[in-house]
Amino acid sequence: MRAVLIAAKQLAIAKTRLAPALPSTGERKGLAEAMFRDVLTAALTAKSPHRVTVVTSDQVLARLARSVGAIVIHEGYPRGLNAAVRLATIQLVELGMTCVCTLLSDIPLVTGADIDAAFAALPNAPRAVTLVPSRDFSGTNIIVRRPPDVIATQFGRFSLVRHLVDCRERSIPCQILQLDGPALDLDVPADLDEFERRHSRTYTRAHLARLSLPQS
C-alpha cells in the first residue's frame, strides 16, 4: 500500500524568511495556505498512491485536508518537520502502508505526474529510496521510502547529502530524480521571482496576484 504524506507547518509560523517581500503575517499565512492547496491538489490527482495523508498541527489545514478526503495525522503541537514526519510514519506503518512519498507543503508547482514519477523511480529492491532535490541541489523536497521507515527524514539545510549518506551507510539503493516543478520551494524572496516567471495556474500565483507583487 502506497501513501502520500504532506508535512505542513502551522500557518502562523510558516514562511518567516519571506518577510522582506511579505511583511504581513496575514500575507504569509495566505501564501502558506495557497501552497498547501496546490500540493494537496497534486497529491489527490496522482495515480500511484492509495492514500493521501497530511501531518500538521494547524486546524485550518487539517479541516481543508479532511474536506477532500485526506487522512489527517495531528501532531498536537509544532514539533518540527522531521519529528512530525517520524510521528506520521509510525502511524502509516500501523495502517499497513508499505511505501510512503513525503512532500513538503511549499512546492506549489508539483503535479500528480511528478508524484507518480517519484514512486516509479524507486529502485527495484525491498529497501529503497527516491530523492527529489531542491533547485540548488542541497535540499530534499520529496522523498519516497520503502519501507516507510527505512531511513529517517532529515529535512533542513543540506538534507540531500544527509539522506544520501544515510542510504550509503545502510546499503540502501537510492535514486536521485530531478523534477523541475517540485525543485522550486518558496523560502526566500528570490524564489518568488522565479515562481512568477513560471506563469503557473495555481492557488499560489492567484494569491500573489491579489497582493499586487511585481510581475516578472
Strand content: 15-25%
Radius of gyration: 16 Å
The count of β-strands is: 7
Low-confidence stretches: none
Q: Termini, distance in Å?
A: 42 Å
- The overall average pLDDT, rounded, is 94
Instruction: Name the helicity range.
Output: 25-40%
Strand adjacency order, main sheet: 3-2-1-4-6-5-7
The total of helices stands at: 7
Q: How would you sum up the global shape?
A: globular
The CATH class designation is Alpha Beta
Name the CATH homologous superfamily: Spore Coat Polysaccharide Biosynthesis Protein SpsA, Chain A
Commentary on this structure:
The chain is an alpha/beta fold. It has one domain: Spore Coat Polysaccharide Biosynthesis Protein SpsA, Chain A (Alpha-Beta Complex). It is built from seven helices and seven strands; from the N terminus they run E-H-E-H-E-H-E-H-E-E-H-E-H-H. The chain has helices spanning 25-45, 59-67, 81-94, 112-120, 159-169, 189-198, 203-210; strands at residues 2-7, 51-56, 71-74, 99-104, 128-133, 140-146, 174-176. It has a seven-stranded mixed beta sheet, with helices on both faces. It is globular and about 50 Å long. The model has no long low-confidence stretch (mean pLDDT 94).
